[in-house]
Design goal:
globular; Glutaredoxin; alpha/beta
């Protein structure tokens, strides 16, 4: 399939179709582990429209591991009011209907070293791109995927330049499809999707207008609007001068369901201005339209997340409405999950069986998260869908952000405050002190990491032996309370072990195994745990 008229575009161990938020995250996570990647992006430049995204604690923990948390937080503070609320109103000038989330970060301190925030994607994507490029990744802009061919040793991706039509081939051992909800790669592989389908043809209106008389002094991050004319949501910058309005429905659903759910039917400038004024509740508001984008509120999940050497991540794998901000976060978590596994395989520390766990871990998380996003869409925007669609009961956001589980008898999710270090859950955050500096237990994780109690020296010795038994697999080991100070003595309780026990944490920060005590053959027990963590037998 590599015709003679094609030019070689380059090679890398991992190719990435898509250079947006999720693709760049994947490139950065791979670069963090010393794996080169090459991302192919259809757009010739990042969109300047101020698309704001809500980043959860888990995502910020991953950015922290990349060393970009502070920079992302600085960019966020430039654009948005921190620690805001999520509310529902009739209009900005009208009455408040509900406090959906009174404070963005209330009570999160005990769960994570990081906090939730909003940041514009045009501000975030360059940070991710710079982080990836500085560590050896490549990004090729203005090329679209036309075909994909897999063989015994790798993947060849055929592309076409969107400007001059020139054809180029790229070659890698593996391919990540991060090319969005209309994924060309997914279509080429013939992977179908299943879900509830499309329930609104929506429009996002980017505009400039002085809304400070109605928003001044109010720390509101997301403002849902529900009135007889429309339903949707505002997101404004901290000066309340620019932002966007997402419109999901217009008019009365009961009178004309088809028209009501086709909010993007009329995108004339005069109509867009009218919608902004209706949502603001200010008939004579001076509005400048800066742009708009049509999109579909839908739920779908790819029936398979991988095909041999190709893996679907982000919107290519799952689509969900924006309510709760779960889409981008879930895609970033996909990228992180597959990145550490690919890194071990490419480096020769694990065989390809490890990659089979990507789909078995991430697909259930996606299905759960998609349904939770839909439930929030119904509750906040389209309550009339409840009777026909029967959405799942809404669970606390913490279950989705930090409480999803991998291969656990406890199910797909739980309250992270109750997880207590069980295998399959994200490792608990505990503040420690090393060399006089406060760090989180999560800051210790990068390789496989053994965290033992103060009397768990046998486990750290076993970890040293394991390194040589598994093709020099990097394994870090610490006795908490001996090697690193346990400042408030809470480590063993948080991880559900005794002072002689240990917890094995995977490179992605999830607990792989734990030994509650220190009896028996520690080397053999740890060896079995590592073998199990490196893929199905």
């Amino acid at each position: 399939m590599s015709g003679g008229n094609r030019n070689s575009g380059g090679e890398a161990p991992v190719l990435i179709a898509g250079g947006g938020l999720v693709g760049l995250s994947a490139a950065a996570f791979l670069a963090q582990r010393g794996i080169r990647s090459l991302a192919m992006e259809k757009l010739t430049a990042t969109s300047p429209l101020p698309r704001a995204a809500f980043f959860h604690m888990r995502t910020m923990e991953l950015f922290r591991s990349l060393g970009i948390e502070d920079l992302v937080r600085e960019r966020s503070a430039q654009d948005f009011v921190p620690e805001g609320a999520i509310v529902a109103v009739e209009s900005l000038a009208g009455r408040k209907l509900a406090d959906i989330m009174p404070s963005l970060n209330e009570g999160v301190e005990v769960l994570s070293p990081c906090r939730r925030l909003y940041v514009n994607q045009p501000s975030l994507e360059p940070i991710l791109r710079d982080r990836a490029l500085s560590a050896g990744a490549s990004v090729v802009r203005g090329v679209e995927v036309t075909d994909v061919h897999q063989d015994a040793s790798g993947v060849t991706v055929m592309t076409r330049n969107v400007v001059d039509g020139q054809q180029r081939e790229f070659r890698g051992q593996f391919l990540l499809a991060a090319d969005g909800g209309h994924s060309k790669v997914r279509d080429l592989l013939g992977i179908p999707c299943a879900g509830r389908g499309v329930f609104s043809n929506s429009v996002t209106i980017y505009f400039t207008a002085d809304l400070s008389p109605w928003l001044g002094g109010k720390a509101w991050s997301i403002i849902y609007v529900n009135n007889p004319q429309l339903s949707g949501f505002f997101r404004m910058n901290r000066s309340a001068q620019t932002g966007f309005l997402g419109v999901n429905t217009v008019g009365d659903y009961k009178l004309d369901p088809l028209a009501a759910t086709n909010a993007a039917a009329d995108v004339n400038e005069s109509r867009l201005i009218e919608l902004v004024r209706l949502a603001a509740g200010v008939p004579d508001l001076k509005v400048r339209i800066d742009g708009f984008s049509r999109w579909r509120a839908a739920t779908s999940v790819a029936q398979s997340f991988h095909d041999r050497r190709v893996f679907l991540i982000g919107d290519a794998a799952h689509l969900m409405p924006p309510n709760g901000g779960f889409g981008g976060n879930t895609g970033i978590h996909d990228a992180h999950n597959i990145a550490w596994k690919l890194a071990l395989v490419v480096a020769g520390h694990a065989d390809r069986r490890l990659l089979e766990t990507y789909a078995s871990e991430r697909k259930p998380v996606a299905e759960f998260t998609v349904e939770q996003a839909f439930s929030r869409y119904v509750a906040r925007t389209a309550p009339w869908l409840a009777a026909s669609q029967r959405p799942e009961p809404i669970v606390d956001d913490l279950h989705i952000e930090l409480g999803y589980l991998y291969d656990s008898p406890h199910g797909t999710h739980m309250d992270p405050r109750a997880a207590a270090g069980i295998p399959g859950a994200r490792a608990p955050h505990v503040w420690l002190k090393r060399a006089g500096r406060r760090i989180s237990t999560l800051d210790l994780v990068g390789n496989f990491t053994l965290l033992a109690g103060v009397d768990g020296g046998k486990w750290t010795q076993a970890a040293a032996a394991a390194t040589t038994c598994f093709a020099n697999l990097p394994v870090d080991a610490y006795c908490i309370g001996r090697d690193i100070e346990d400042t408030d003595g809470s480590f063993t309780q948080a991880y559900g072990i005794s002072s002689q026990g240990a917890s094995l944490v995977r490179p992605d920060g999830f607990v792989a195994w734990r030994g509650i005590g220190g009896s028996g053959d520690c080397t053999a027990a740890l060896g079995r745990a590592l073998a199990s963590s490196l893929g199905p037998s």
